[in-house]
Amino acid sequence: MRVVITCGPSYEPIDQVRRITNFSTGELGLLLAKRCATAGVEVFCLMGEAATCPLRPPGVEPISFSTNENLLARLEAIPAPGEIDYLFHVAALADFKVESVTDAGGSPFAGGKIESRSGALTLRLVPAIKLIGRLRALFPRAWIAGWKYELDGSREEALAKGFRQIAENQTNACFVNGAAYGEGFGHVEHDGFVAHYASKEILCEALIPYLSNAW
Fold this sequence. Notes:
The protein is an alpha/beta fold and about 220 residues long.
């Protein structure tokens, strides 16, 4: 079996030394990669350059990425994409990128580094590319799972967003977590709620037997 796992944060540059990014250590994706490799699965692990988790699963050589577009290029370069069996899209990708930076007078910044004495600046953010909607075309026969991290609202509302992610992106499953869901992770598929996992480690252990018919 062949598995693709994305993990850690992407970033989008402000200038050549500054960036916007998400909080993500990459730990969950690396734990999944370790568990899959232990089960004898060929793993392609794509890890954000800013991931801080030190875990390096034996037999897995992480492929680094920077921006959303860079991750897309890395995914497009995976050999024989039609033979990928599972894809766990755990990466915490930027929702926005910087379109322009202007000073207090409205003049655009030009150069490699914004000077610290520049005063107040305005950053115009525009939506970054959404990779989850492109995964089905890239990996047509894979079982694809996305992640949904929600802070606001109720558990029911967070799970509803997970179901919506599946419907909108032709994925197979969504794992929901964050303050809105509460402790642990909820596993949903298009036909309903599958399971609750109390921790990252339990989730990783449970997925192997859950998908064992294919493995």
